[in-house]
Amino acid sequence: MPSVDKHYSQSLQLDEILKRLNEAYPDGPNVYQLAPIDQLHIGGIKASEKLAKRLSEFKASKVLDIGSGLGGLLRVCSQQHQAIYVSLDITHELSCINQQLNKLSKTNCPSMVVTGNGQQLPFPDQSFDLIIMQHSLLNMPDKRAVLNECKRILSPDGHLILHEVLTGKNSDEMLFPVPWASTSDLSHLISSAEIRALISSVSMKIQSMQDWSAEALSWRARQTSKQQTLHAPVVTPGMILGSDFALMGKNVQSNLENRAIEIVEVVIS
User: Which GO terms describe its biological process (predicted)?
Assistant: First the structure.
C-alpha cells in the first residue's frame, strides 16, 4: 500500500532547490519567490494570505500548523502577525526543507519545525491558542483522532481553522493523480456532512463554514495558463511532486469543474 511519506518524498530535489534559490536570490527569496514550491495547496499564496488574517482576528499568540509541508503558510503568517509558530509534518524530508527555507528566506520566520503525526500530536495539553490545517486532513485516515488531539492541545478559548478539500456532489468523477495522492489509496476525502458530524462528535463547534470552491477554480485556471508560458519560475512544483505535477494540476481543475471536490474554510472552537 502506498504511503504518505513516499508520496511526498520520492521526487524531492532538495539540493537542486537550494542551489537554484541561492543563485537566483543571493539576498534570500521572499514568500512570492518561494510560492511555486511551498504554496502547493489549492488557492496558492492568496489563500494563505486570507487565512493569515484570522490570526490577528483571534489575537493568536501560539500557532500550530499541522501538515505544514515546506512551511509556506507560516512564512506568510509571520509577515502579518507576531506569534510563536510551530510547523508539524509527518514527512521528515519536508520538515528538513522547511528548516532550510526558513534560514534562507527574507522572512526570518521564527517557526519551530517538528516531524510528527497529526493523529498523535507530541505536545502537552492546552499548548496552542490556534491550529491551522491547510489541506492536511485529506491524508489522515483517522480524522476523529486528529480532532480529539487538536481539542486536547488547544486552550479553552482556542480555535482550529481548516482549509480543506472535501468531496463534492459528483465525487464518483474524481480523477487521479492529484497533488495529495497519486491514487485513491492515499486520498481520505470526506463530505461536508461528514466533517460537520465529526466535529460535533468530539464536542467541538463550527463557528463558520465558507465555500472557497469558485475562487479556487479561478486560481487553478490561472495556474494552468501560466504553465503554458515559456518562462518557468526558478523553482517549480515538479521539484517537489515530480513529473506528474502538470497532470495533477489539470486533474484538480477538472475535479473542481465537475464538482467532484469542493474547497472550504471551517473555523472551529
Answer: methylation; sterol biosynthetic process
